[in-house]
Write a structure and sequence with these properties.
heterodimer, A: alpha/beta, Rossmann fold, seven-stranded mixed β-sheet, six-stranded parallel β-sheet, 10 helices, B: mainly alpha, ABC transporter involved in vitamin B12 uptake, BtuC, 2 strands, 68% helix, globular
Chain lengths: 369, 309
């Protein structure tokens, strides 16, 4: 059929039929599926923070009636508001996961106030009573997993010097450094942890330099708290040092050097949240948990880890999972000789004092400012 | 690491030396290339994009073929293509090279992120290093002296380029185009063609600089890999007064300064690390202030450059 033989009437009929046909399935899909938006600050496959969240999103994709839309590399600026707006208005998202710490204030708060019927779940644990009720902020006590990894690190070090490549001296990072060091001291009370702050979450050249400097100082087990641990893990392994990982399992990057690691377990938490959401229940605004709640996990031990180390680490892990163990239990001295936690004081995971952590424990070499 | 002796404060000079060698190579390649481009009378600000494209292409080809050196070549060719694009657009009438450069910087970075998406996870074969520290049994020094061949090539290239610019016919033509396009035209040369070649050469080197980032140090492809090193290297050319040997010195200085912050923290000197991390930039400012003068234009600046005209 050539083009000029189509009559105007036929064309109109055809267009109408097309329009109807197109409208129906879309309308149908809207009713059946829940659309969930995921926003990442970096790349989804960074072997780090964002990959951990993307693994959680991938777990949701397997659930029936769930549609996931994702956007990567959204900066912690007005850009995230635009992304949320577009996910809400164009994709019809009713539940959003803005996963980066800096998205919360003011961007998530603003959007939650503007769309009171939608749900916003932010990762960072920042929700307070004054914030909108349709916003929530969850976080995991990953320092529990770091503590277990620290036990392994303390067992494995020959020089007694451990290294920590950290981004910024904020409470969450300091808590990891301290928990890791306290874990290592359980295995070997004499260990020290040398910490280097790179100044930002993703600085590959600086992270590589920090790793090399630490190894030059005789450090032989390294871990990190940066967005993408790939650089640290690979460079440490190249110099013959051992590593414990962070965010996700990096064993494939350095099979021999990778001892264990502290991982997020969002693929368990997110389906739990979405089930509550689709069932019409309210997701708690403030949601926290550690090993016990399966929000964090410990990577399988590497082949190099001996039986004694595994046994002690498993013991600590079992107690943490049972909830009968406190990492930050007084007396704890800081590395300036002051008392961080007084004798007899036990700061359990939910203690708000831990969220204000501004010290490094005794045995850590470094300063918070 | 077994047997690592405690060398205490010696870590700092050793780390600065090691850092100077490790961190300087991309600066060196980009600045040498840009030096030639600018001497022909054009600024290519797009080298940040070229560097990132080179890093991505090098990593990709190394991963696909298993040969890191093929990756380096591919990075160079990619860079050359980016250079040709810049020169081609700038060859059109009334086009500003700085604006095109900024456009190509964004284009290169964006394209590299787009094409490089599937390359973030896989691990590609890396470039080998040459052990120049065999004479010492201090492990730290040995590690610092484990040097990549690209660095040595860059170091050798600097005097060759200086010599070529000063004494060869080819160098004279490039300089003529940079000092006076009219003179070059009068001599019967196509200024656009000279600048096309000079920009392609600059892009080639910048691409190789990028492959060093992804294939040697830090040694994997990710999106934060360059974080402005290409732009810094373009600024280094001005800092080095368009002299390839000074480019070499400036690159090494920058590499060493970048290693200072982590090195000081590793020996426990951890106060004010933000300040030490800013050391390279403070250094640039100081030298710029010390060497600038209101009475004359920058010494050594090619007269045809759009910043001096």
């Amino acid at each position: 059929m050539t083009f000029d033989t189509i009559s105007r009437r036929r064309l109109l009929q055809g267009t109408a039929a097309l329009g109807l046909g197109a409208a129906l399935p879309i309308g149908g899909a809207r009713a059946a599926a829940t659309t969930i938006g995921f926003i990442y600050v970096g790349s989804r496959d960074d072997y780090g923070y964002n990959q951990a969240h993307a693994a959680g999103a991938a777990a949701l994709k397997k659930m029936a009636g769930i549609k996931v839309v994702e956007e990567e590399k959204v900066p912690e600026t007005d850009a995230v508001e635009k992304t949320m707006e577009s996910m809400i208005n164009l994709d019809g998202a009713t539940l959003l996961f803005p996963t980066s710490f800096g998205y919360y204030n003011p961007h998530v708060l603003k959007m939650a106030a503007k769309y009171p019927k939608l749900r916003f779940e932010h990762c960072g644990g920042l929700w307070t009573d004054k914030d909108p009720k349709n916003a929530g902020s969850y976080f995991g006590y990953i320092d529990e997993a770091q503590h277990v990894a620290g036990v392994i690190a303390g067992h494995m070090t020959k020089s007694g010097k451990l290294g920590f490549v950290a981004a910024k001296p904020i409470p969450q990072v300091l808590r990891n450094i301290n928990a890791w060091t306290l874990g290592a001291k359980l295995a070997n009370p004499k260990v020290t942890t040398q910490v280097i702050f790179t100044g930002d979450w993703s600085m590959p050249v600086k992270e590589a330099e920090a790793t090399n400097s630490l190894i030059d100082q005789g450090v032989d087990v390294i871990t990190c708290h940066v967005d993408g641990p790939k650089t640290v893990v690979e460079n440490a392994a190249r110099r013959g040092a051992m590593v414990t990982g962070y965010h996700v399992n990096q064993a494939v990057l350095a099979p021999k050097a990778y001892l264990t690691g502290a991982e997020w377990n969002w693929e368990v938490l997110y389906p739990r949240f979405v089930k509550m959401f689709t069932a019409g229940e309210t997701i708690p605004n403030f949601y926290r948990g550690g090993l016990k709640e399966e929000i964090v996990k410990v990577s399988p031990y590497g082949a190099a880890v001996p039986e004694a180390a595994r046994k002690q680490a498993d013991g600590v892990k079992a107690k943490l999972t049972a909830g009968s163990y406190v990492i930050f239990k007084g007396p704890v001295t800081d590395n300036k000789g002051g008392i961080a936690i007084a004798s007899g004081v036990s700061r359990g995971q939910t203690d708000p004092e831990l969220e204000k952590m501004n010290y490094l424990v005794e045995g850590v070499v470094g300063a918070t400012s | 690491m077994a047997g690592a002796g405690d060398i205490g404060l010696w870590t700092i000079p050793v780390a600065v030396l090691g850092g100077a060698v490790r961190v300087s190579t991309p600066f060196l390649f980009v600045s040498l290339g840009e030096c030639i481009t600018e001497r022909s009378g054009r600024i290519n600000l797009g080298l940040e994009g070229t560097l990132v494209m080179g890093a991505m292409a090098g990593y990709g080809i190394s991963y696909l073929t298993g040969s890191p050196w093929l990756g380096v070549l591919a990075a160079g060719i990619t860079g050359m293509g980016m250079g040709a694009l810049h020169a081609g657009i700038c060859g059109l009438p009334r086009v500003n090279d700085i604006a095109v450069g900024i456009g190509l910087m964004l284009f290169g970075v964006g394209l590299a992120f787009y094409l490089g998406k599937p390359l973030i996870e896989p691990t590609a074969p890396r470039l080998p290093s040459i052990d120049l520290g065999w004479w010492t049994d201090i492990p730290q020094l040995r590690a610092a002296l484990r040097i990549n061949a690209l660095f040595l090539i860059g170091v050798a290239l600097a005097p060759i380029l200086l010599w070529a610019l000063r004494t060869t016919r080819w160098g004279l033509i490039v300089r003529t185009a940079g000092e006076s396009a009219d003179a070059a035209l009068a001599m019967g040369y196509s200024v656009n063609l000279i600048r096309l070649r000079a920009t392609m050469f600059g892009g080639f080197l910048a691409g190789i600089g990028g492959s060093f980032l992804s294939l040697y140090y830090p040694g994997s492809w990710n999106e934060g890999l360059s974080s402005g090193q290409g732009i810094t290297a373009v600024a280094l050319v001005i800092f080095a007064r368009w002299n390839p040997m000074l480019c070499l010195g400036a690159s090494i200085l920058f590499g060493g300064a970048a290693a200072l912050g982590p090195a000081l923290q590793s020996v426990g000197f951890s106060h004010g690390y933000h300040l030490f991390n800013a050391a390279p930039y403070i250094l640039t400012l100081l030298i710029m202030i010390a060497t600038c003068s209101p009475k004359r234009t920058l010494i050594g600046a090619p007269a045809e450059l759009s910043i001096t005209r």
